[in-house]
Structure formats: C-alpha cells, structure tokens
Specification:
Layout: H1 2-35, E1 48-51, E2 56-60, E3 78-84, E4 87-92, E5 103-104, E6 111-123, E7 126-138, E8 146-153
Antiparallel strand pairs: 1-2, 2-3, 3-4, 4-5, 6-7, 7-8
Length: about 160
C-alpha cells in the first residue's frame, strides 16, 4: 500500500509542476502578445504574424521606444515562438517560422508538448483577444496530459 501511495503522490506532484510550468510559459508568451504592435513613432511591418495554424507566432514591439522596430541586430525587437518536434522553441530576432537558431524552452526529456496555438479573436470596438493554448504530457510516472488556455488583450493591434 505504501509504494502505491508514494507513486500516487509523485504523479500528482508531477502533474502540478507541469501545470505550473505551462502557466509560466503561457504568461511569458501572453506578455509579449500584449506588447505586440507598440511603437513610439511610425514603425513599418507586421506587428504580429501567426502562422502554421497558430503553432508559430512572431511578435514585434518597440522595446527601446525609438520609433522603429529594430531587426538583425543584438537589440532585435522581434520574438518568435513555435512548436517543433514536440518542444516549444523561441528565437529573438525571428522573421520567419522556419530556419535555424531557435532554442528549446521546454525540456524534451521531461515533457512532450502536444499542442501550442495562438489565436487572434476580433472584438467589435475593442482590441483583439489573444488566446494561447498549451497541452503537454509528462514523460515519467505515467502522468496524463495537462491542458491550459490563457487569454490576453492585444492592446496595440
């Protein structure tokens, strides 16, 4: 009985930790989405690019408030997130969803990211609502899939 109880506690702890990690990822992406389109001047280009059925998003905002979106520099003001090979990846200065230089922000030995999607929902007379969906399965202790959905307002879109 004690080993079964111990295993159950381990599984429950793992599920809670995974849920917390997914929420932290969703909050990080959401924070960038809220900033998307901010410009202290006249920036040119797309403030937000959603591709691959929402599995890749590239966000631009004027982080240094100089009136333009910097690209191809150490201070690039684009941030990309994508789902690739069951991991969530990010890249600063991303201009497209393909290519190299993306870094994993989830541990592929710890979890399998089953879904990542960003959806923009238009609202009449209001800024759009940005919906982030994440689903992942732990790779140890036979845990079940964890699903979360986080919404933020795209104030500058």
């Amino acid at each position: 009985m004690l080993p079964a109880l111990h295993f159950g506690v381990l599984r429950q702890t793992q599920q809670a930790a995974m849920q917390e990690e997914l929420w932290q990822l969703a909050f990080a992406v959401g924070k960038q989405l809220q900033r998307a389109g901010y410009c202290y001047g006249s920036c040119s280009g797309e403030p937000l690019k959603i591709a691959s059925q929402g599995q890749c998003v590239i966000i631009q905002w004027d982080a240094n408030s100089n009136g333009k979106w910097e690209a191809f520099s150490a201070e690039a003001e684009q941030t990309g997130y994508r789902l690739r090979e069951k991991s969530l990846e990010t890249q600063r200065g991303a201009t497209q969803c393909d290519g190299k230089g993306w870094e994993k922000i989830t541990d592929p030995q710890k979890m399998r990211v089953d879904a990542f999607a960003v959806k923009q929902q238009a609202r009449s007379g209001l800024p759009p609502l940005m919906i982030i969906r994440l689903a992942a399965t732990p790779l140890s202790y036979g845990g079940s899939q964890v699903n979360i959905e986080h919404s933020v307002v795209g104030y500058n879109l």
